[in-house]
UniProtKB/TrEMBL annotation:
It comes from Pseudonocardia xinjiangensis. This is Glyoxalase. Pfam families: Glyoxalase (PF00903). SUPFAM superfamilies: Glyoxalase/Bleomycin resistance protein/Dihydroxybiphenyl dioxygenase. Residues 6-125 form the VOC domain. InterPro entries: Glyas_Bleomycin-R_OHBP_Dase (IPR029068), Glyas_Fos-R_dOase_dom (IPR004360), VOC_core (IPR037523).
Amino acid sequence: MRTSEDVFHLAIPAADLDAAQEFYVGALGCKLARRYADRITLDFFGDQVVCHLSDVADDAPELYPRHFGVTFRHREDWERLLRLARTRGLTFFAEPFHRFAGRAEEHETFVLADPSNNLLEFKYYDDPRMMY
């Protein structure tokens, strides 16, 4: 069974590893764990994301069904990342918006697009029981 010492792993395509590294490390503040000629491995908010060099990119991405990101436990962390994204001029696929007002799953969200058009959603739920 997974414990808090384990990490989730996700592999995504990257058309340009330098651009991917600049976005994830330079702009989002993730940690570069390793770099090889064909991939970079990142500490993505405590989990592992590997950007594999690929010529397969989505020129017209849609949020559903494929995206990934972080659901923050604390609003301040979500707001801090939002400010960072704005300050660094990152590409918003979807500006911040409020979803499901008045319902248990009410939350704030925004979506960024990385240089290879992978979509990253960042959320904060008012009720932490709705994180899963």
